[in-house]
Design goal:
This protein has 355 residues and is mainly α. The protein has two domains: 304 residues, ABC transporter involved in vitamin B12 uptake, BtuC, CATH 1.10.3470; 31 residues, no CATH class. Helix content is 72%, strand content 1%. Helix 2 runs antiparallel to helix 13. The radius of gyration is 23 Å and the shape is globular.
Length: 355
């Protein structure tokens, strides 16, 4: 019997969350599957889903993006400011907000790939730059979204919000890119081992820059959606939501390795859904907001512990008995023993003697 992979596990946890939510919400006199409650849950997945999609790509290439909250705020301000309550300005505003977001992602990717600065530091610095600009330029909310644009954040098809449908469409495009294009395969290769990817003829800078650009564009879309919901742009809407760390948590919960090279966008969407359901359940039960972070933290730690103790990948020996099957679940000691064994076999071979 094959082991469950991380994607199967996260959706199994989502199913258990649904069962627990049904019981707990029912005990409070509410129906977990009511149209209003389902709409609330799906609405909660929209913003975090956009950001987590981009964050998945960045983590797959072995980087991080901590600038997303400030890109969200900047995008909402640019969009609402250009719209200025004029329906005819919607398209130029959206294009301008996404263009600025893409340029920020390009700068992040160039620093990470070109200057070889770790993504944590590079994007943290970019986030501080954008944060300083927001703080010195805007004193409060700015601009105004017209009614036609606000309907994007307020309407839906049945219990499914339009914003969720847009997020799922973006996820489908990114998933198709990861699974069927050279760029997607290169992202996995660069995240797994940049040196091997480089020797295989892959231009390692391109996937890193592309991942950061897509991540920033997704954050820009999230900012525009928040502007549609609020009707105005806000310089603090991104940082107040804590979307940087929460998106990373959703990606990790979905089974993507922080070291890069291995993960699933479907798993990320499962992680986003779990967080949305947990928030909904705790809101219905009127749990202290600070305890929500406690619950999130417990879920993240347990998930990472489960992934760390499981042996997910099994490969047959490729170079004889000296190269044992690779196993992600091996403890460091066993891995070093295997490495020593393989080195011993190489040194005892005729080629090793002649060297």
């Amino acid at each position: 019997m094959n082991r469950l992979d991380s994607t199967h596990i996260v959706y199994l946890v989502a199913l258990l969350t649904v069962i627990a939510g049904t019981i707990l919400v029912g005990s409070a006199g509410r129906n977990f599957f009511s149209a209003g409650n389902i709409s609330d849950i799906l609405t909660g997945t929209s913003i975090l889903g956009f950001i987590a999609i981009g964050q998945t790509l960045v983590i797959l290439v072995g980087s991080l993006d901590l600038s997303v909250p400030y890109v969200i705020s900047l995008s909402s301000l640019i969009g609402a400011g250009i719209m200025a309550n004029q329906p005819g300005n919607i398209l130029p505003a959206v294009m301008a907000a996404l263009l600025v977001s893409a340029l920020i992602g390009l700068a992040n990717g160039a620093v990470v790939a070109g200057l070889r600065v770790h993504g944590f530091i590079a994007t943290l610095g970019m986030g501080l730059i954008v944060s300083g600009y927001l703080g010195s330029t805007y004193q409060g909310s700015s601009g105004q979204a017209p009614l036609a644009f606000r309907l994007v954040g307020a309407t839906g098809i049945g219990p499914v919000p339009v914003s969720t449908l847009i997020m799922l469409a973006c996820a489908a495009v990114v998933l198709l890119m990861l699974n069927t294009t050279r760029l997607g395969h290169a992202m996995y290769a660069v995240g797994g081992d940049p040196s091997v990817a480089r020797m295989s003829g892959i231009r390692t800078r391109t996937p890193v820059i592309a991942a950061h650009m897509i991540c920033s564009v997704m954050a820009g879309l999230a900012g525009l959606l928040l502007a549609a919901r609020l009707g105005v742009g806000s310089p603090t809407i991104g940082s107040q939501g804590g979307y940087d760390l929460l998106s990373i948590a959703a990606v990790v919960l979905g089974g993507t390795l922080l070291a890069g090279g291995k993960g699933s966008l479907l798993g990320t969407l499962g992680g986003v859904l779990i967080f949305a359901m947990l928030d909904n359940i705790m809101s219905v039960l009127q749990i202290n907001p600070f305890l929500k972070d406690v619950v999130r933290g417990i879920v993240i730690v347990v998930a990472v512990a489960v992934y760390a103790r499981r042996r997910v990948v099994h490969r047959q020996a490729r170079f004889g008995s000296g190269a044992a099957a690779h196993d992600d679940g091996d403890p460091p000691g066993r891995a070093s023993e295997r490495g020593a064994g393989s080195r011993g076999n190489r040194s005892s071979s005729p080629r090793g003697v002649s060297a």
